[in-house]
TrEMBL record:
Belongs to the universal ribosomal protein uL3 family. This is RP-L3e. InterPro entries: L3_arc_euk, Ribosomal_L3_dom_3_arc_sf, Ribosomal_uL3, Ribosomal_uL3_CS, Transl_B-barrel_sf. PROSITE patterns: RIBOSOMAL_L3. GO terms for molecular function: RNA binding; structural constituent of ribosome. One of its GO terms (biological process) is translation. It holds the Pfam family Ribosomal_L3. It comes from the Eukaryota. It comes from Lepeophtheirus salmonis (Salmon louse).
């Protein structure tokens, strides 16, 4: 049976929503902190399911891997097609029309089977082409992010049959990653623009009386060699850099808003010790993001990039043996107080119980009564 394993690419299926903190019990036998409660910062990453739309086989050449054949699914969503156009509204929207027609007649199906046979015979690596579902995120961007996910484990024919089974199907985050796993995150940092040496390289500021500025490098090199060496700090672009961070621990993977027995269930931030009915969204939502409604992942610490930016999550390339990496995580409390200032209350019910109905609450109630009265009249 083929297994999932994502490879480093520029795009990914997860979106950074924001940060909060959790309380958990440490599980480190022999340590002074063992069985004690600790508070840690975590990142909430929204992870809507991806959709598989194709498979590609790679062969090894003296210059590296080369794509041998690519087979596309019969139906490809509009959000994936948008990625291939600069201006979707003015285009003729003809992308993938020929590839999709192959599935309609016997000649086309025979061609698809031949391509898959060639992949099975010659390919050394098989990757599944997947795209994100922008419509689930309620963001302004409609273009999907497309990436290749490598299939590891099993024979090449097994990988191809596994890929075919998943064509046009959703791939949830739980089928790729698990709780307590160590993963790597790949993304682009927050851009800062053109910066000087003091901000960019944290060089020492010169004394107050320095001529022609003090946020500079005092000496940028000797007379000879008559060139500036690459090791000398210079002004330039800061931020918006591609970065890979290794060893991020998954504290939990939880379901988003879902329906059970005809009712919407939003209770996805409660724990065994904190049984309050609350969602992962802090009061007022995550600043500069909004509400997390899809499945989400809780990662230890921070991640690169601003809110709403995509991240690639990759299986760890290392074999983890340290106790800290193998530690079992048991969350006792997830903070959902407001992240826009100093939050005091975990839920709106807590605030109402402590402060009583506010003026705005009374006005809303009066407006509701007036609306129902006018509707009945």
């Amino acid at each position: 049976m083929a297994l999932w394993d994502s490879i480093p690419r520029r795009e990914a299926s997860v979106i950074v929503a924001g940060m909060t903190h959790v309380v958990r019990e440490a599980d480190r036998p022999g340590s002074k902190i063992n069985k004690k409660e600790i508070v840690e910062a975590v990142t909430i990453v929204e992870t809507p399911p991806m959709v598989a739309i194709g498979v590609v086989g790679y062969i090894e050449t003296p210059r590296g891997l080369r794509a041998l054949k690519t087979v596309w699914a019969e139906h490809i969503g509009e959000e994936a097609k948008r990625r291939f156009y600069k201006n979707w509204s003015k285009s003729k929207k003809k992308a993938f029309t020929k590839a999709c027609k192959k599935w309609e007649d016997d000649l086309g199906k025979k061609e698809i089977e031949n391509d898959l046979k060639q992949i099975a015979k010659y390919a050394s690596a098989v990757r599944l082409i997947c795209h994100t579902q922008q419509k689930l995120l309620k963001r302004r961007q409609k273009k999907a992010h497309i990436m290749e996910i490598q299939l590891n484990g099993g024979s090449i024919p097994d990988k191809i049959s596994f890929a075919r089974e998943h064509f046009e199907k959703e791939i949830p985050i739980r089928s790729v990653f698990t709780k307590d796993e160590m993963i790597d995150t790949i993304g682009v940092t927050k851009g800062k623009g053109f910066k000087g040496v003091t901000s960019r390289w944290h060089t020492k500021k010169l004394p107050r009386k320095t001529h022609k500025g003090l946020r500079k490098v005092a000496c940028i090199g000797a007379w000879h060699p008559s060139r500036i060496q690459f090791t000398v700090a210079r002004a330039g672009q800061k931020g918006y850099h591609h970065r890979t961070e290794i060893n991020k621990k998954i504290y939990d993977i939880r379901r988003g808003f879902h329906t059970e027995n005809g009712k919407i269930v939003k209770n996805n931030a409660s724990t065994e010790y904190d049984i309050a009915d609350k969602s992962i969204n802090p009061m007022g939502g995550f600043p500069h993001y909004g509400e997390v409604k899809q499945d989400f992942m809780i990662l230890k610490g921070c991640c690169v990039g601003p809110k709403k930016r995509v991240l690639t999550l990759r299986k760890s390339l290392l074999t983890h043996t340290k106790r800290k990496a193998l530690e079992s995580i048991n969350l006792k409390f997830i903070d959902t107080s407001s992240k826009f200032g100093h939050g005091r209350f975990q839920t709106h019910a807590d605030k109402m119980a402590f402060m009583g109905p506010l003026k705005k609450d009374k006005e809303r109630a009066a407006a509701r009564i007036a609306a129902t009265a006018s509707a009945s009249a």
